[in-house]
Design goal:
Length: 202
Amino acid sequence: MIRVLLAEDMHLIRGALAALIDLEDDMLVVSQVSTGDDAVTRGVELRPDVVVLDIQMPGRLDGLGAAQELRERAPECALLMLTSAGRAETLRRSLAAGARGFMLKDAPPARLAEAIRRVATGETVIDPGLAAAVITGPPNPLSPREAEVLRKAGEGADLAEIANELFLSKGTVRNYLGAIVTKLDARNRLDAVRIAAENGWI
């Protein structure tokens, strides 16, 4: 029996996914959670065979952050990421976080069940269309630090707040934001946030 932990913040989607998984004779949903923090807590407690993580979740940890912590604290758990928007950079970041699988939420139920089975046995499962996007899509032009600065700006933090949180000077933050706008060929910071978010770079 494949023991599955399901992490999805939208109640209706979580319930539907759990019902679909429980229909499979060889699978059992051992826990359902709505945040990345709870996914880590329950994953460490229960040690399921597969953790299915929605990439976008509220709280301190989103799906990617939860995947990174689970890889460190419960490395025996296979990680399968779910997303409603298939972006090449999000797939890259998921694989870097230790995920073995990456599926779109609108994939047929049979494909999701098969993906769970395959990641449970150690295989890597990636939606074919997304795999092609990784090969052909543009790479992320932002450094990790630039992405962090832009993410903070996108959350509404001003220069002083970003500088304080990241232990930088206001001038350095201003320089980062200027370089980011140039790299992304954006009109301004807001446009840079939009471009980066649409491409899964932040």
